[in-house]
Amino acid sequence: MRRNIDNGAAGLRIVLVAFTCDPTRGSEPAIGWGWTESLARRGHTVEVLTHPEFDSVRHAERRVADLGEVGERIKLHVIPEPRAPRWTGLLPGPLSGMAAEVKRYDRWQRRALAYARGHGLDRADLVHHVSYGSLQGGSALRHLGPPLVFGPVGGGQIAPHSHRRYLGAAYPQEALRTWLWVRCLSRRQSCRMTLRDAAVVLATNRDTERRARELSRATTRLMLADGIQESLIREPAEAPPARSDRPPTVLWVGRLHPRKTPELAVRAVAHLRSEIPDARLVVLGDGPLRPSLEQLAQRLGVGESVEFRGLLPREEVFSACDEADAFLMTSLRDSSSTQTLEAWARGLPVVHLGHHGISDFSAPGGAVSVPLGDPSDLPQRLAWALSGVLKDQHARHCMERAALAWAHKHTWSAKAETAEELYRAILPPRAGG
């Protein structure tokens, strides 16, 4: 049954499905918490359905206590994740891990639905599902009763077959993911019924939006999944800063995983140094590719110019942004990118590949989009784009201001305000309101 609200959408009781939710981490846990706190700050009661992961519950409870009156509007409902069925362990290779993840999440959703019914959450005004941030998982909370806002979700994007050389030995697993996750799991009844029953489906890239429309007649809208805290957006400089003594620095941030394609960053900087000999690359993040990337840098003769700093706290990532001159995004498959939004929030120009969510939400005037084109010369074309940014100090200053303006449009408070507009469309105003 639909609830009535006034034109300001104030004082709603919202069931927020945030499987991962942690104020101290990035990516999906940060998204879950971003929605939680921003909606509570708008005066809504937020009933968060989540699960314990590492120290996420302790971090969330500590933040709730620190928020005072705002924290009183946040109700954490922690639901442990069930085990996967034993049969998933019998499947070969990566199928085992994929199947276990899907079944664990399905079981958690059923447990969350039963919990919500048993604790009176069916009397809430609406349900907003924000994670898993993938359309394939669907949302069992569509059965709870209140209208469902599903997303922002990704899951429709795939790594381009034409550029499989940069995925190396991981390409067969990526192709399996495309077939199983995108082609097959999106056709599950739970996914189709979620798209059918949702009042609105928020997609974080056009690939996912197209997939959702192929599967149903869902009402869709594009929305960036990520948000930024206003306090993290730095003030614009009045004039271009004087050139420092440090070498021109390119920053790359992310997990050192095949689909993130950090190899492209190393190869691009090797080309870049033919035009800017003292240019260097700083890599933040860790993962299975680190040894091979260090070896590649040595083979290309840029071992002394590529610095691998490993996984750092978010505060140190922002400091690294402030010390860099350009940010490079090379992922061949991503629904969007938290890292690029954080870079823009620090006024850092971004060079990225022209596809997926990063292309759909690229800062106008604050980024250079490099088409995928021919894979053989892609590192060179990335280097040319970086060179253009690094050599022109005035252009970089203009890009800085455009980046900061774009970040201000994607703060968590702005996202919560946009969400309220959606809620108003879903829940009609009170009679005479």
Helix percentage range: 40-55%
Shape summary: globular
Compute the CA-based radius of gyration.
Answer: 22 Å
Give the class-level CATH name of the largest domain. Answer: Alpha Beta
CATH architecture tag of the largest domain? 3-Layer(aba) Sandwich
Q: Main beta sheet, described?
A: 7 strands, parallel
Intertermini distance: 19 Å
- Note poorly predicted spans: 1-8
Name the beta content range.
5-15%
Which properties best describe this structure?
alpha/beta; 14 helices; 433 residues; disordered N terminus; 2 domains; Rossmann fold
Question: What is the secondary structure topology, with strand pairs?
Answer:
Layout (H helix, E strand, L loop, with lengths): L12 E6 L8 H15 L3 E6 L5 H11 L7 E5 L14 H26 L7 E6 L16 E6 L17 H14 L4 H9 L2 E4 L2 H10 L4 E3 L26 E5 L8 H11 L7 E5 L5 H10 L6 E5 L3 H10 L2 E4 L8 H8 L4 E4 L2 H5 L6 E4 L7 H14 L1 H16 L3 H15 L7
Helix pairs in contact: 1-14, 7-12, 10-13
Protein model, in words:
This protein is an alpha/beta fold. The chain folds into two domains: 13-227 and 411-426, Rossmann fold (3-Layer(aba) Sandwich); 234-408, 3-Layer(aba) Sandwich (Rossmann fold), CATH 3.40.50. It is built from 14 helices and 13 strands. It has a seven-stranded parallel beta sheet, sandwiched between helices. The chain has a six-stranded parallel beta sheet with strand order 10-9-8-11-12-13, with helices on both faces. α10 links the parallel β11 and β12. α7 (262-272) packs across α12 (378-391).
